[in-house]
Each structure stands twice: as structure tokens, then as C-alpha cells.
Amino acid sequence: METPPVPYRPDPAGGCPHAANARLLARGAVTPVVLPGGVEGMAVLGHEALREFLQHPGVAKDARHFTQLREGRIPTGWPLLTFATVRGMTTADGADHRRLRALVSRAFTPRRVEELRPRIAELTDTLLDDLDRAAADGDGVADLRRHFALPLPLGVIGELLGVDAEFRDRLHHLTNQVVATDIRPAEAVAANRELVGVLAAVAAARAEHPGDDLTSALIAARDEDGDRLGQEELIGTLVLMIIAGHETTLNLITNAVRALCGHRDQLELVRKGDASWADVVEETLRWDAPVSYFPFRYPVRDLTVDGTVIPAGTPVLAGYSAAGRDPAAHGPDADRFDVTRPARPDAARHLSLGHGAHYCLGAPLARLEATVALQRLFDRFPALDLTVAEDQLARQASFVGNSVRALPVRPRPRPGG
């Protein structure tokens, strides 16, 4: 009788996922995991297995299918609870999912996203000035994540949602706690409660003074037809939009800058025109996905994926960072950052923005923001480089998000550089 694999315990404190991913992939595309608090689950890591799983009709997002939660075995302060219980697109199935997605999809059509390009460029240039000033005040060194990679997507999604600037820093702090996997139960409960309170205040402000923003449009839908969007779904949708609307792009920009600074030959290829900034974005999404393990999906019946049975009701993580470097899909050099990597057919493209019905609605916006940001950043500061070694960068305190906490850079060329 074959010995079952030892469950993988993702580190709640985060850390670079790639070495562990390689070890796990070597033994199979699916692995049992033990989540914080001893909660048993599974992770799908292999590219083809994950692609199949993400679009499988027997896989649900609604937490009523989460057996341990339904049976009362998940504590209130569990750090991953919000991912399961928030009311919105990412926890809805079928007609409910289509209804909620339709309410926000008009803000993310290719035409609407392209209309944002001038504003994104304007905001990018302002933030590059801020980065330059921060470096001048810091002996030539500034935190690119804090001064550039964060405020750009946070500002864009804030404007789209009609979130006043006074709320944005607090919302980032709170959403950062929501995606943390090492947070204590009392802190998790408090952060979720405050996040809901802040977004309720945002919604109340937009209800009193509606504008040309997505929150106002959602409130109008709620007020016109409560069956179309309830108050809990309104707040849940705002929670998801704030988190997905800036955390993913923040990590994408940060990871792309790290990759280019660590692979100057690849940056030179872009400068010579042998690759595009869009190529940089796609290769970064594959090579260092902004989300490592995304919670949760649940089989509605026992499901066999790549020869492994996942019992019904099991919470399953989507292993995006592992799938991005799966040699079975991306070749024996899958762990190499290569902006000239040939375009792959749809079946072999990276899955870092999801797949199937729950494919990331904001993917075109994330790609646009990252492309504009990287091009203008390296045009302005062609000699930009990290000031510490890659392995000395402190990682995010999460196995959900995949990036670093700070990115100290020198945006001005050194003397003679």
C-alpha cells in the first residue's frame, strides 16, 4: 500500500515560495496541506491540474460547501476566514456569481480601461517625482514599494471606487492584515470589523454625494432592487475590489522591478526593442506570480485531480506561483526569467490571474498599470537598482501574497553611471 504524502505546512510568516514549490511539484501536481490552526486542506500546484481544477463544474466557491466551516470547526479568528466568508464575486457560484460580476464588469471593459491610460500616466509621473524626492531625503535611497508600487494601484482603484484619499492608507493597512496569514485571532477579528466599518463609511459618503464612480453605481443598484444587490454584498464587493484592485498590482510591479534589477540582460533586451514592457509583465506574472496560494475552492463531490482524490468539502488552495514554474508546462528552464519566452497557446499560458468563470475581472487594468509604470520608471531612472541583495529583502507575512515588504532602490545613477 502506497504511503500518503506528508502534508505541506505553508509558513504563516510567508517567505519565498519557489524552493518549496519545486520540491512539491517533484512529487505530484496535488498535495495535502495543513493550514494555520491545523485546518486540513489541499493545494493544486501543477499547471495542467490547476487549469482543469479552476474550470471544473464540480468545484464551488461558496463556503456552504466548506465542510469544516459548516460543521462549526473553524474558529472566528481564523486568519483565512475572510477569504471564505466575504460576500461577493469570489465566494459566489452560478447565477449569483454572474449577477455580482455583471454589476462591476462595465467598469473593466477594454474601452473603459484604455480610457484610464492618460490618468495612469499622469499619476505615475507624479509618483516618480515623489520617489525622486524621497531618495533625495534618504541619501539617494527610497522604498520603491512604498512611494511608487503601492500608491499607483491604490490611487487608481480608489478613484474608480470613489474612495476619498483620506481613507486609502487605512484601507491598505487593513487589507494587508486581511491577507496576512500570521495574524493573531483577535487582530484578525478587529481588522475585519474595522475594514467593514471604513467601507460602510465610504458607501455612506457616496450615498449622500453620488458621483461617477463604481461605488455610487453599486449603491444605485442596491437602492433600485435589493434582490439585485444587498447591503452585505455591497460591502463584500467593496472589500474584494479594494484588495484585488491594488494588492495584486502592487506585488506585480514590485516583483517586476526586482526581476529586472536581478536580470540586467533582460532589461537591456527591452531597451533595445527585442522585447516589450508587456512581455516583462507577462513573464513576471508567470515567473513570480503576485499571488502564491489563493484560498479557496471546494469540490462539491469527491474529485480526482491528476490521480489524487480531493474529498468533497475540502478547502483547496490554487497554487499560482507553483504552476508558473511547472516544467511540464513551461519547459526545463521554467525557473529562468526570460522576457523573450515564446508566446504559448492558451492552454499553456500562465494562470496567475486565474482561469475560467472566476478569471480576474481587473486583469486588463492590472496589465495596463504595470506596463505604464515600468516603462516610465526605467525611462526616468535607467540606472535604477536595488540597494540590498535579493535574499536580504524581507518577505510579506503571508503565503497568499507573494512579494517583499519593502524595496529599497537607488533611483539616481551613481557618479559616472
Spell out the key features of this protein.
globular; Cyt_P450_sf; alpha+beta; 3-stranded antiparallel sheet; 51% helix; 5-stranded mixed sheet; 417 residues; Cytochrome p450; 18 helices
> How big is the Rg?
21 Å
Spatial order of strands in the largest sheet: 1-2-8-5-3
- What general form does the structure show? globular
Report the CATH superfamily: Cytochrome P450
Organism: Streptomyces sp. 900105755
InterPro entries: Cyt_P450, Cyt_P450_B, Cyt_P450_sf
Family: Belongs to the cytochrome P450 family.
Pfam families: p450 (PF00067)
Topology (SSEs and partners):
Elements: H1 18-27, E1 30-35, E2 39-44, H2 47-54, E3 59-60, H3 67-70, H4 81-85, H5 94-105, H6 110-115, H7 117-137, E4 142-143, H8 144-149, H9 151-161, H10 165-179, H11 185-208, H12 214-224, H13 231-262, H14 264-271, H15 277-287, E5 293-299, E6 303-305, E7 308-310, E8 316-319, H16 320-324, H17 327-330, H18 363-380, E9 385-386, E10 408-410
Parallel strand pairs: 2-8
Antiparallel strand pairs: 1-2, 3-5, 4-10, 5-8, 6-7, 9-10
Helix pairs in contact: 7-9, 7-18, 9-13, 10-11, 10-13, 11-12, 11-13, 13-15, 13-18, 15-18
Explain the overall architecture.
- Helix 7 crosses helix 18, helix 9 (151-161) runs antiparallel to helix 13 and helix 13 (231-262) packs parallel to helix 18 (363-380).
- This protein is of the alpha+beta class and 417 residues long.
- The strands form 3 sheets. A 5-stranded mixed sheet has the order 1-2-8-5-3. It has a 3-stranded antiparallel sheet with strand order 4-10-9.
- The chain has a single domain (18-410), classed as Cytochrome p450, CATH 1.10.630.
- The chain has helices at 18-27, 47-54, 67-70, 81-85, 94-105, 110-115, 117-137, 144-149, 151-161, 165-179, 185-208, 214-224, 231-262, 264-271, 277-287, 320-324, 327-330, 363-380, and strands spanning 30-35, 39-44, 59-60, 142-143, 293-299, 303-305, 308-310, 316-319, 385-386, 408-410.
